[in-house]
Amino acid sequence: MSTNFYKTVLLFTIFFFCKINAQPKTGEFINASIGFGISAPYDESDISGSGFYAQGEYVIGISKWFGVRPYVGIILTSEDKSENQQNQFNYKVTSKALLLGGKARIVAPIKYIAPYIETGFGLSVGSFDTYTPLTNRSKNGLIAHIPFSIGLALGKKNNFDIAFTYYYHPSVKQFSGAAAFGLTFPIKN
């Protein structure tokens, strides 16, 4: 591996273990996110869907760098029609589903900007279509998904965040996700 990789890991480790006052807080919070939703196949096809994404989380901040987050969300995407896809009228990647599950978040405590990564396990209830030249899957009902997010908690109290959040649906060979903006509200002051 390159020396840049080791430098990046060392820099992240230093930031991760720093004690800085504007770190994410411990306690209980509600986080609400909204964003531009997408759906895309696992394969290399240039076919996707776009639409709406929203999610609510009950945040349990166990420590200043770790928390768990039960969530409920919705993803609604429809097929994108572009000039490249006009001759491929049968191909589409769409998701219309309710998302339920739990995630764990690890946060690097950096003042005013706290990068984070999260993953977990969840279930999706809805309809999913993945029709590409390489994949032909459609499911309705309950399927498992794996959430994964990377983002930044922003502000003095880290109560704003921007993230790229994805839900991998192995049984239909697609992922759904969003570029989202969120706000966090404490349950108790």
Question: Notable features of this structure?
Answer:
63% strand, Porin, eight-stranded antiparallel β-barrel, mainly beta
Structural class: mainly beta
Mean pLDDT, as a whole number? 84
Beta strands, count: 8
Low-confidence stretches: 16-23
Give the tally of structural domains. Answer: 1
Q: What is the CATH topology descriptor? A: Porin
Give a quick summary of the entry.
The chain is mostly beta strands and 189 residues long. The chain has one helix at residues 3-17; strands spanning 27-41, 49-61, 66-79, 92-107, 113-131, 136-154, 160-169, 174-186.
Question: How would you describe the overall organization of this protein?
Answer:
With 189 residues, this protein is mainly β. The chain has a single domain (3-186), classed as Porin. It has one helix spanning 3-17, and strands at 27-41, 49-61, 66-79, 92-107, 113-131, 136-154, 160-169, 174-186. An eight-stranded antiparallel β-barrel has the order 1-2-3-4-5-6-7-8.
List the helices and strands and how they pair.
Blueprint (H helix, E strand, L loop, with lengths): L2 H15 L9 E15 L7 E13 L4 E14 L12 E16 L5 E19 L4 E19 L5 E10 L4 E13 L3
Antiparallel strand pairs: 1-2, 1-8, 2-3, 3-4, 4-5, 5-6, 6-7, 7-8
